[in-house]
Amino acid sequence: MVLESAELLIKPGMEAEFEAAARLATPLFQRARGCAGMQLQRGIENPRAYRLLVRWQTVEDHNVHFRGSEDFQEWRRLVGYCFDGAPSVSHLETVLEGF
Q: What is the CA radius of gyration of the chain?
């Protein structure tokens, strides 16, 4: 399992609009090949900062299959105009399950 972590900064005053658009986009992730879950978190210290966490079976499921799909284009259409700069994306794997 791979965890995609995307740091998103949203334009001032667009937080509610972004969250509503992200809710609309949930089915895009639900039907994506290899996607095992998705959640969106909002910063407490900086409410314009969000973290999108998506669980994928493989990095290729995200980078190749999802990013190359029409659903990815729809995701970007729904939320991309809210971004204040390019998202920072990384992929993580669990090396220790503490408790």
A: 14
Q: 53: closest CA among 44, 65, 42?
A: 42
Tokens 């407490």 belong to which residue? Answer: 44
Rounded Cα–Cα distance for residues 86 and 29 (Å)? 20
pLDDT of residue 36: 98
Question: With a cut of 70, which residues of the chain have pLDDT below it?
Answer: none
DSSP-assigned letters across all residues of 44-78: SS-TTEEEEEEEESSHHIIIIIITTSHHHHHHHHH
Q: Please give the model's pTM, rounded to 2 decimal places.
A: 0.94
Cα-to-chain-centroid distance, residue 8: 8
State how beta strands 49-56 and 35-42 pair: antiparallel
